Amino acid sequence: MKIKAKAIQIIENTAKKIPAVQRLLEKEYNKLLSEIEESAKPYKDLESFPVIPQKGIEREDILQKMIGFQEKEQDKWKDGFVSGAVYHGDNEHIEFLNKVLAINSQSNPLHSDVWPSAAKYEAEIVSMTGNMMNGHAVTGKDEVCGTVSSGGTESIMLAMKTYRDWARDKKGIKKPEMIVPITAHAAFDKASQYFGIKMRHVSVDHNYQANVKEVKKTVNKNTIVIVGSAPAFPHGIIDPIKELSEIARKRKIGFHVDACLGGFLLPWAEKLGYDVPVFDFRLPGVTSISADTHKYGYTAKGTSVILYRNLELRHYQYYTATEWPGGLYFSPTFAGSRPGSLSAACWASMLSIGEEGYLKSTKKIVVTADKIKKAISEIPELYILGKPLWVISFGSEVLDIYKVLDAMAKRKWSLNGLHKPSALHIAITLRHTQNGVAGQFIKDLKESVAYVKTQPKTKGGMAPMYGLAASIPFRGAISDLLKRYLDILYKV
Ligand SMILES: Cc1ncc(COP(=O)(O)O)c(C=O)c1O
């Protein structure tokens, strides 16, 4: 931690113990959160169930309640007003996945003896993903392998735990460190906290790519893994994977490519002739890759794939218990019991879409992104950060970009707010490739910019929250605020 940040933390920790400061903070938290609670809990006036009902409610009534919520919620994402979130969303595809989910609703891969089909699905998901990542380029005693996990965060956390245990066993590293660009997903920080791996953040350059020189300088005898993203969530920029992975290869340490977002899009974009740098197992330094099937793999939420360059690494991910009275126990990922239906849906999604379908979808997404990028670059008050392919982030030198976020929200848009620097982003999905959606986005964005220019003092929305986060040096207070927000979500 830098000296200034450390000093601020000490001041904050001391100040938080003073009752007057506690009261002041409490007042501020309550004020901010009461404004946010309105939008976070739109159903709070409806009938709620704080305890199990004494007598079971009719199934049909329950279904009707849920259909009510679904109808309220689906327009926004179905019509393409949401960044990322739902990556396919066509009715026929959803209906197909729903049938698969229903057929497999009882399946649990933990019991592979009862549901060997789940093991087949998962083995083939891993194999298909490994081949898409050019796993066949790996020769000699290495062999690309992996497991299915519950999502990008789990894939990343599994990989970091794997490197920690591998480095402890093979290299005797007891104080492990990971080198991670600041733009890499927050899941790496989560892994650092959960598994006691020291986080060594490195900066990004003017293109928002990891700073290679800084990575080189940061590597030391305790480094277990270097991370690069393809692309990173905030700005959709691909790190210099080749250069970074070479640093790792020369030091004989791990190199993880986070392709959670790009794993199921970049390989097809490359085949279509777009300028995609090599980021997969063709690079000899790449030792693991995370790729999310529940994003551009177009399956239901709840699966991702974590791939390793060799079987030895995967063994450090597995968990086995040989002395438990409950029997011999083994599981490949963090969970014990798992929803086999999600693996079945993932397998079915990959088979039904096929190479042709992935190529077609990728083409549509990149063409739509090009249209949107061009329009944003023609709005004089805005600028695009770096040179992204399809996840587009934009900021402004002259306007409060969070007010633009709020003005877009009033026009139904749900975009992502970014900070450091202040910006917004839209991750283009198939929902945005529907007729008229890109045009609507451009029209609404122009109107929103014009509105914020003339009404810069409009109150409410997310702007105050982001303003606060940007202006307060006390990060603990921001963290407390976020925890209280989670508390609100769990309020009945
Ligand atoms: C680059 C990247 N990595 C990891 C993740 C985490 O994925 P999940 O939300 O499935 O845990 C995301 C999510 O958007 C991402 O964009």
Give a description of the structure:
α4 packs antiparallel against α12 and α13 packs across α14 (437-454). Among the domains are: 3-78 and 471-489, no CATH class; 107-349, Type I PLP-dependent aspartate aminotransferase-like (Major domain) (Aspartate Aminotransferase, domain 2, 3-Layer(aba) Sandwich). The longest helix has 38 residues, at 340-377. The radius of gyration is 24 Å and the shape is globular. Helix content is 48%, strand content 12%. The strands form three sheets. The chain has a seven-stranded mixed β-sheet, with helices on both faces. It has a four-stranded antiparallel β-sheet with strand order 10-11-13-12. Strands 8-9 form a two-stranded antiparallel sheet. The two termini are 39 Å apart. It has 16 helices and 13 strands. It has helices at residues 3-15, 19-40, 59-78, 91-103, 116-132, 152-171, 187-195, 212-218, 241-251, 266-271, 311-317, 340-377, 401-410, 437-454, 463-471, 475-489; strands at 145-149, 177-181, 198-202, 223-229, 254-259, 288-291, 304-308, 319-321, 329-331, 383-384, 391-395, 416-418, 423-427. With 492 residues, it is α/β, with parallel strands linked by helices. Residues 151-153, 156, 185, 187, 229, 232-233, 258, 260-261, 292, 304 line the site of pyridoxal-5'-phosphate.
